[in-house]
Design brief:
By secondary structure, the protein is of the alpha/beta class. The chain folds into two domains: about 160 residues, Response regulator (Rossmann fold, 3-Layer(aba) Sandwich); about 150 residues, 3-Layer(aba) Sandwich (Rossmann fold), CATH 3.40.50.2000. About 40% of the residues lie in helices and about 15% in strands. The chain has a six-stranded parallel sheet with strand order 2-1-3-4-5-6, sandwiched between helices. A six-stranded parallel sheet has the order 9-8-7-10-11-12, sandwiched between helices. The protein is globular and about 60 Å long.
Length: about 350
């Protein structure tokens, strides 16, 4: 029996206390393991991997380098280029590099040389696949975000009630979401990011006055609003708690890409404010969902007052079920191909 191949992973986003990112990296490592590839070391998001001797040692001994593109490679951001530069590092030598789960939008042509040196590239949406194809002259396919490729959550929830209000990577959207929530009834604020300092306190501490004051200030600072009237807050310690919140609500309004993904796998009716790239709009297109689910800042208030407008149609649910089923089977095929690339690497 052949021993497993060894890989290193660049852009491990689990350290961001983000339930969607945690699901992505777990799925990525699981899919690699299922196809005979062990992840020997990871470099967390924005880490200076080229100065990390331990990581470079693992890199030099690996059979494969995997870059988790996620939402990093857009608008020429320097930390995005830092991931691609691994192809030219001496420790990489002839080790194959694969880029997976990649958004790719509005990047400089100077990045094309890095991409052309990679053994395999997989976008996470059709627009990014087209951009990568144009950059490399190769036919690049896409696999929906890895958070959508690791199994279905229950299709039906029991007694869905109320509205879950999410957050955003952008402060102006977080502020608008919170300020427009004051007149909504039966609403709770459930960010996809965990507020680690407070979420990790003991049960007794959480019910105390100091915890309540601390939550108020953290909430106010994070969302850029000092309003005394704040929605009820639920800080989920893990992904399963977050998924339970989505499964139990009748409508989810968010500005986060991965919140949209997890709404899709829980079949939770949702609307989303555009984020810092085309990622939400591209996902809606690829899944065949209504473009009306992406709203503007000016539409937040009306969406909260009329959540029933965002119920899934039967056609949308059919398209969503097909999209998710195809994502799972496509992931198996793509990771089998990645395993073949690793197998060709000399020991």
């Amino acid at each position: 029996m052949n021993p497993n191949k060894r890989a290193v992973l660049l852009n491990d986003t689990t350290a961001s206390n983000h339930h969607g990112c945690a699901r992505v990296v777990r799925t990525l490592c699981t899919k690699l393991s299922e196809h005979g590839i062990d992840v020997a070391a990871t470099s967390v998001v924005r880490h200076r991997w080229w100065d990390d001797r331990r990581f470079l040692q693992h890199l030099s001994e690996s059979d494969l380098v995997v870059i988790n593109g996620e939402g990093t490679l857009h608008h020429g951001r320097p930390h995005g280029e830092n991931l691609l530069k691994v192809v030219d590092h001496p420790a990489c030598r002839a080790i194959p590099v694969v880029l997976v789960n990649a958004l790719y939008q509005d990047n400089p042509t100077s990045w094309n040389d890095y991409l052309k040196k990679m053994s395999y590239l997989v976008a996470r949406d059709s627009r990014s696949a087209a951009a990568l194809s144009a950059a490399t002259g190769r036919d690049i396919e896409f696999l929906p975000d890895l958070s959508l490729c690791s199994g279905f959550e229950p299709k039906q929830a029991i007694d869905r009630q109320g509205i879950v209000l999410g957050d955003s990577v952008r402060l102006n959207i977080r502020r608008a979401l919170v300020r427009n929530s004051s007149n909504a009834s039966n609403l709770r604020y459930v960010p996809i990011k965990k507020v680690a300092r407070l979420a990790n306190t003991s049960g007794a501490s959480r019910s105390g006055v100091f915890h309540s004051i601390g939550m108020w200030w953290l909430f106010a600072l994070y969302n850029g609003t000092l309003s005394w009237k704040q929605p009820a807050k639920v800080i989920c310690e893990n992904e399963q708690e977050y998924l339970r919140q989505l499964r139990s609500c009748a409508f989810h309004l968010t500005g986060r890409f991965h919140s949209v993904c997890l709404s899709m796998i829980t079949r939770t009716p949702f609307a989303a404010v555009a984020s810092n790239s085309w990622k939400i709009e591209a996902l809606l297109d690829d899944a065949g969902l209504s473009k009306q689910r992406q709203i503007s800042l000016d539409e937040i208030g009306s969406a909260l007052q009329r959540p029933e407008d965002f119920a899934f149609s039967d056609n949308e649910l059919d398209r969503l079920n097909t999209f998710l089923a195809e994502a799972g089977s496509k992931a198996d095929r793509i990771f089998a191909h990645i395993a073949q690339i690793a197998a060709r690497c000399s020991p």
